[in-house]
């Protein structure tokens, strides 16, 4: 089994805060990420597909086709956005790194399957020190 990864980047603003909590409680739980006036990240996204290389092309999946899908389904929607205000993916859930990987998976899985490949992992770096991996609802296999 081979694993092919495509990197894409986007930047976006967000804040982490529960609207039902006081400012003090939000600060206690989310720290500076709860700042009222937002903050931004340069997100670094790594999308991995799995499969056996085609005997004629040697590709698990054409990385250019994968890039086109990721740009259309994710980057073009999230880049230069405010995740809390502009993106309905995050209505009722916090735009954390974990929830971003979940929503990105949901927006990619069917498109990648339709292109004949299998989504294996969504990895998203929020900062150079923080990243989340999501392997789909069934977990890693
Ligand atoms: N489990 C999670 N924890 C945190 C998340 C997250 O998405 N999932 N996000 C944040 C904040 O968004 C925050 O902005 C992270 O930025 P920062 O603290 O600057 O990040 P670093 O840890 O890389 O910076 P240091 O300077 O090393 O503190 C927080 N937690």
UniProtKB/TrEMBL annotation:
Q: Specify the enzyme's EC class, one word.
A: lyase
- Give me the comment on cofactor binding: Binds 1 zinc ion per subunit.
**Coiled coil regions in record:** none
Q: Which Pfam family, an example, fits this chain?
A: PTPS
InterPro entries on file: 6-PTP_synth/QueD, 6-PTP_synth/QueD_sf
Q: So what does this thing catalyse?
A: 7,8-dihydroneopterin 3'-triphosphate + H2O = 6-carboxy-5,6,7,8-tetrahydropterin + triphosphate + acetaldehyde + 2 H(+)
Q: Which UniProt keywords apply?
A: Lyase, Metal-binding, Queuosine biosynthesis, Zinc
Q: What is its EC number?
A: 4.-.-.-
Pathway where this protein functions: Purine metabolism; 7-cyano-7-deazaguanine biosynthesis
Q: Which cofactors must be present for this protein to function?
A: Zn(2+)
Similarity comment: Belongs to the PTPS family. QueD subfamily.
Instruction: State what protein this is by name.
Output: 6-carboxy-5,6,7,8-tetrahydropterin synthase
